[in-house]
Amino acid sequence: MNPSMTQTGRALAAREFLGAAVLLLASALVGCSGNADPPQPAASAIIVPPVVKAPLVTTSPADQTVQSGQAATFSVVASGTAPLSYQWQRNGTVIAGATGASYTTPATVAADNSALFTVVVSNAVGSVTSGAATLTVITPVTLTITQQPADTSVVAGAAASFTVAASCSSGTLGIQWQRSPDGVTWTDIAGATAPTFSVVTVTGDSGAQFRANLDCSGKSPATSTAATLTVTTASPGTLNLSLLPIVGLRDQADISQSTAIDQDPGNSFTFISSNRVQRLSADLTTVTPVAGGQFSGSADGAAANASFNQPQGLTQDAVGNIYIADTANQTIRRIAADGTVTTLAGLAGSSGSADGTGNVARFNQPRGIAIGPDGDLYVADNSNHLIRRVTTAGVVTTYAGSTIGYADGVPSAAKFQFPSGVAVAANGDVLVSDSSNNRIRRIVRSGNVAGTVQTLAGDGTYSATDADGLGTAAAIGLPNGMVLRGNTLTVRDGLGLLRQIDLTTAAVTTLTGSRVLGEGFADGDTSTARIRDLGVGLTAAPNGGFMLADDLALRSVSAAGVVHTIASHAAAHVTPAGVGTLDQMPFSLALNDPQGLTVDPAGNVVVADQATETVRRISPAGVVTLAAGLTGGFEGSVDGVGSAAQFAALGYALASDSAGVLWVADNFGLRRIGTDNATTQPAGSTTAFGAVDGSGAIARFNRIFGLAVGPSGNVYAGDAGNAAVRRIDSSGNVTTYAGVMGQSAQVDGAIALARFQAPHQVAFAPDGALYVVDGVLGGVIRRIAPDGASVSTLAGAFSVGSIAVDAAGTIYFGSPSGLQAMAPGGAVSLLIPSGAAVVLGSTNPRLMNVDGLAILGPKKLVMLSGGQILVATLP
Questions:
Q1: Contact between 176 and 104 (Cβ < 8 Å)
Q2: For residue 234, what pLDDT is reported?
Q3: Phi and psi at residue 582, in whole multiples of 5°?
Q4: N or C: which end of the chain has fewer CB within 10 A?
Q5: Facing residues of 215 across strands?
Q6: Sheet containing 322-326: order of strands
Q7: Among 189, 198, 178, 235, which residue's Cα sits nearest to residue 871?
Q8: CB under 8 Å to 375, separation ≥6 — which residues?
Q9: Which residues fall within 8 angstroms of residue 490, CB to CB, at 6 or more apart?
Q10: What CA–CA distance (Å, rounded) separates 423 from 408?
Q11: Cα–Cα distance between 72 and 382 in angstroms, integer?
């Protein structure tokens, strides 16, 4: 063979050689047999069958991202012997009619998110499955502006306010106010991020325009219409009456009868309130609806039209589906990411204990619900005394339990007694709050099924002590809501305690709640906080903390066990449509009823709001912050910081000293609020009245209606019920400063002979004199000399209610005639007359009864009138 012959040439030569050999062999056989066979075809006529190739996917379908409502198209490229056939699948399930090389979905919905699409390519000799393509469906965020800013006209020096309102289909509403001199160039206003923006005006502001840029957690940005500010100049020598600028106040959402709560992936919180599912924003300031309404029902459908019946459990999956244990409906419901509600299992209004699929299954008061790592739901079927397993396709089986009682062991023989809460560990173990057995149970996972039921902790007893301990040596009375974080199970028990259980050692400890004080409703640290025994809602929160939901409130718990109330259903201005939380509630000021009002050295206006049971500061910029008090609290007089303090009966009297320390009357006692918002009781009793001088708690008052702080720092109280002016020094020692307790009269003269009838409001003048409003239903103004030696009555001031004295010695007071002023020389003038309603502005302003009065600054007064906080700018 020629060495230079190519490989192809060599192959052809070999084929020719083989053909010749075949022919020679055939001839030889003919010669040997002597018989002539039929002629054979030449070698070149031999037919070689074609090669048949199995299908091969050369290009798999690619991932697709579309917006909800759009279709998505997936394509495949394959080779192999024709004809090729195609069959598309979604999540492993055949799609009927999808038999082409490409497949276009119907219009997508939120539930299509994360679906996987593959295609099987086949021919006569085999088949092959493509790689999976993921469908991502983006649900557009919708921002709806419900209130546009309105043009505003004010007198120079008054505050102008602009308000915008909007709602987000998801996410948190963001607001940034802007200002423009000409409607063309816009500049962000630093710190102006609340729904209402207020500015104290000057004449140069006239013509400025204001608008708000809005978004929903950075999505769906929108801009409000622009509002124009007109500023006029008050005529020289006129007085102007305006509202005190306040920003950020909103009606609180209705969160009554809250039960379950669950942390969302974005650190917001979805919770159940009565028949509603709602969401608390991650910054803990906004509550928005998710699904359901005010009234009970069992309707599926769009979020706003759906209804529930006292649901008590919820959980969520990774793609935004919310699963609800709809307790009184005896069903398990699902809220899709787009808000659509469907019934997954059970039949509304029909109780029972049947396994099955969809409405064939039966439950009896399902409560706790949790999703496991397998994607299935685990339900505490309370009145069936069972733990049920529900697939997302609605297939219901009994996971563990038999009849009511207490027994560990194999799942089918184990017994529970009114289980109420469940949590699922990463390994599939199911933890159960076995409430009436006073125990925490564990259903150990074995493969894909329940292996055995164990008692993790609790000795079966319920007592006021509920001692900590190891496993069954500890007592856990009536455990309810639970949440698992890592290897630590946190449980709410029936004594108002948060208990924690180490799953490895079974050691039981107490995070917070007071065994000494018992269950209740009080903020504070681990020794003073009180938690409701009726509460079942519990979930994890950022920084190692927790969120609680119960019949009274939504509350946070820090990792150190400090409890703080976020929203209370007893707050004033609670409406079904409200979106705010407790810190944002509006003032609820009474009409024609004195209330505490003062101004501290920083210029903060401080209001003792009886209806909300709080003392709050309003900064010069209009920002409201809590000094002390808990709305809805009922524990009486409680010392503490901020909302950890409670008042028994917030009184009419409020004063600030030169350091900003606040003094407030509380029922029969005196409370002190430090600059750190720590509230204490330096003197008197909030539950017992009397007429006793003495130190601290020994002293007794009988209704303090006025407070003022003197030049030396002593506090002076108008003790109306005792007909005396009392003095409290820095050590809490109480003495009678003027008048004789129990001797009611109006007698001027030397201090030993002077008598008071019913001292109310008190105020110090620059010279150290103390002015006292003295009378039963509105009195005269009495003056106690700076040295305290004598008492006199001022002429020309009658039926006085509130009183204040400025740095020039002018006395301002409210009377049936309106707001009046008494100059140092004794001349009385009417500044703002009274009327049937408050009328603002500089032209014929009017006031209702002056219920509180304080000096805001030179020629500026702040007052309470007609349920409003007003500023009078004097000529």
A1: no
A2: 65
A3: -60, -40
A4: N
A5: 174
A6: 313-316, 322-326, 331-335, 341-345
A7: 198
A8: 317, 391, 392
A9: 482, 483, 484, 498, 499, 500, 501, 511, 538, 546
A10: 18
A11: 44
Number of helical H runs and strand E runs in the chain: 1, 75
What is the C-alpha to C-alpha distance for residues 654 and 528, in angstroms, rounded to an integer? 26
| pLDDT, position 343 | 98
pLDDT in tens, 146-188: 899 999 888 776 778 899 999 888 888 999 999 999 999 999 9
- What span, in angstroms and rounded, lies between the C-alpha atoms of 236 and 714? 41
pLDDT at position 17: 38
Return the minimum-mean-pLDDT range out of 159-173, 265-279, 334-348, 374-388.
159-173
Question: Three-state SS string across 350-361, please?
Answer: EECCCCEEHHHC
The single-letter code of the amino acid at 534 is L
For residue 20, report the phi and psi dihedrals to the nearest 5 degrees.
-65, -40
**363 residue type, one letter:** F
Residue 811's identity, in one-letter code, is I
Residue 647 has pLDDT above 70, yes or no: yes
Average pLDDT over residues 426-439: 98
Distances (CA, A) of 711 to 77, 762, 767, 770, 859: 91, 14, 9, 11, 22
Parallel/antiparallel/unpaired status of strands 126-129 and 77-79: unpaired
The token pair that represents 32 in the structure block: 């040997």
State both tokens at 854: 């304080």
Q: Tell me if 822 sits within 8 A of 811, measured CB to CB.
A: yes
Cis before 83? omega within 30: yes
Counting Cα atoms < 13 Å in the Cβ hemisphere of 181 gives: 1
* Bridge partners of residue 669, in order along the sequence: 666
Of the CA atoms within 13 Å of residue 840, those in its CB half-sphere come to: 15
Here the tokens at position 31 are: 């010669």
* Beta strand residue intervals within 54-100, DSSP E: 56-59, 64-67, 73-75, 77-79, 85-90, 93-94
The end-to-end CA distance of the chain, in Å, is 125
Which phi and psi (to 5°) does residue 647 adopt?
-115, 145
Q: Which long-range contacts (C-beta less than 8 Å, at least 24 apart) are formed by 483-491?
A: 483/423, 483/538, 483/539, 483/540, 483/546, 484/423, 484/424, 484/425, 484/431, 485/540, 485/544, 489/423, 489/431, 489/440, 489/456, 490/538, 490/546, 491/421, 491/433, 491/440, 491/538
**Amino acid present at 625:** T
Tracing tokens 């004594």 back to the chain, one arrives at 495
User: What are the structure tokens assigned to 276, written together?
Assistant: 């509603």
- Kindly state the helix (H) or strand (E) to which residue 14 belongs, with its residue range: helix 7-33
| This prediction's pTM | 0.77
The single-letter DSSP state of residue 83 is: P
Q: What is the pLDDT of residue 79?
A: 93
Q: Is a pLDDT exceeding 70 seen at residue 259?
A: yes
Residue whose pair of structure tokens reads 């007429």 in the numeric block: 691
DSSP reduced 3-state for 11: helix
Tokens of 82: 């024709």
To the nearest 10°, the Cα dihedral for 828, 832, 837, 839? 180
Q: What is the reported pLDDT for 10?
A: 40
Q: Are strands 507-512 and 537-540 parallel, antiparallel or unpaired?
A: unpaired
pLDDT over 80 (residue 780):
yes
55 DSSP assignment: -
C-alpha closest to that of 73 among 108, 43, 39: 108
Q: Compute the distance between CA of residue 811 and CA of residue 17 in angstroms, rounded to an integer.
A: 133
